[in-house]
Amino acid sequence: MLCVVFGLSLLDRTNISSAYIAGLAEDLRLHIGSRYNIALLIFFVPYALFEIPSNMVIRRLGARYWLGFLITAWGLCVLGMGFVHSWQVLTVLRALLGLFEAGLFPGAIYIIGSWYRQYETAKRVSTFYMASLLSSGFGPIFAYALSLIKVGDGMYRRGWRWIFIIEGIATAVAGLVAPFFLIEFPEKVKFLTPRQKHIATTRVSLEKTGTDIEHPTVKQSLKMLMDWKIGVYSIQYFVAASSVYSLAFFQPIILRQGMGFSYALSQILSSPPYMFAIIASLGFAWLSDKIKLRWPVLISQSVIAIVGLLIILYTKPPGVRYFGLFLATFGTQANVPGTLAYGQNQTAKIQKRGVVSAAMISVGAAGGITGSTIFQSKDAPLDLPGMWATISMQMLYSLLTFGMSMHFKRQNRLADEGKRPYLEGVEGFRYAP
Q: Major facilitator superfamily (MFS) profile domain location, by residue (predicted)?
């Protein structure tokens, strides 16, 4: 169910690009100035601000009802976009969409991290994220089918409205049924006996100390945020998120304007790169858990993204450039769950994990702002500044990941030698470089 609702959230935040080339740009005159970019980036302002507060609420109220409320609320926002007549109203609804969607992703990572141990998380987080990418893969095709709907002689003959209306209704319904299917935190589930709940929390606490579930106060959460390593994880996730959002928002436009494909073909060709990304990412995540190393996999995926972006940028045949899109989509998408697992694996205390995931995804929202602005209409069809900004950030990602992992390896060695027995303040804990 987490996969389903997260898939809907990705669909609802990125379907604006499909609506853009289906007539939204002309009807709302989004091509004037920076209107489209503003409508994109405004989503991420409340999205960033509400991440940490939501993760402070979710464990107190319970995941099922809190997430169910958020899902229903943002579904209604998407439904409302199907009836707008001005770009200003669209922008307000995008801001509300960001507010309500903010709690889902960090909450889901928090839930997964509460059930699985250190070298069990990468493939679980990747499965959660990649399964939801099916919506991104088939989203453009589904959007194309919805854009063909025409009802009456008025505004409902505009296909882009039906993209928002149908997808908004689907999300709102999912929000209403979500409380019956979503998983809770181990200590709150009703299908486990008290002994089983103890086992579920203790098996995680073997590496993440403490079986008593504590709800950190605002002051305690702020103190946790002072850990400099969270800043590094957040920069890593900022790069991963900005790269993903830039491709998601502008991939149909790149295919349409940059590679010269028709509208219908641009929508259809948006899907195969995501299918490849899902399969390859799950394989790399399994490998990362198997060899119990994170940095070789994360850096390899970043390098593959760089190669793909260079192929898109500097080759001429559309088929070769399209192959580059496969590599770029895989490399950028795979490092989103990989980076989240990396940050969770270095966090010893259970109560800190929710703060870490929320902080990373909050900064990732700034990556969404970057991703929605680095590709400018005036730069088409080559999009040279946007491409090189993404390539440069991926280079930074590789350097940061390598540096942090070498630091963690050294700390583990010192702990093994008895010189640093309390990594992260927990005896016996070891980082996962």
A: 1-413
Residues counted in the chain: 433
Burial class (CB in 10 A: 0-12, 13-18, 19+), 51: buried
Domains, the chain, with CATH or none: 2-418 (1.20.1250.20)
Between the CA of residue 268 and those of 15, 85, 140, 250, 295, what are the distances in Å? Answer: 14, 28, 7, 14, 34
* Residues near 375 by beta carbon (within 8 Å), at least 6 away in sequence: 246, 249, 250, 253, 383, 386
pLDDT tens digit sequence for 293-347: 999 999 999 999 999 999 988 888 888 989 999 999 999 999 999 999 999 889 8
Q: Using the 8-state DSSP alphabet, how is residue 255 labeled?
A: I
- Can you say how many angstroms the Cα of residue 332 is from the centroid of all Cα atoms in its chain? 11
Phi, psi of 426 (to 5 degrees): -130, 120
Cβ distance 277 to 136 under 8 Å? no
- The closest alpha carbon to 365, from 121, 41, 93, 90, belongs to 41
Tell me the per-residue pLDDT of 31-50, one tens digit each, with 9 for 90 and over.
Answer: 888 888 889 889 988 998 99
Whether the pLDDT of residue 381 is over 70: the answer is no
What's 208's DSSP letter? S
Cα separation, 288 vs 402, whole angstroms: 15
Tell me the C-alpha distance between 117 and 421, whole Å: 20
Tokens 């994360």, residue located: 298
The answer on pLDDT for 213 being more than 60 is no
Pairing label, strands 422-423, 426-427: antiparallel
When pLDDT is cut at 50, 70 and 90, the band that residue 206 belongs to is low
Q: With contact defined as beta carbons under 8 Å apart, do 41 and 273 qualify?
A: no
**Rounded Cα–Cα distance for residues 271 and 6 (Å):** 18
Helix ranges (DSSP H) in 63-116: 63-81, 87-101, 104-115
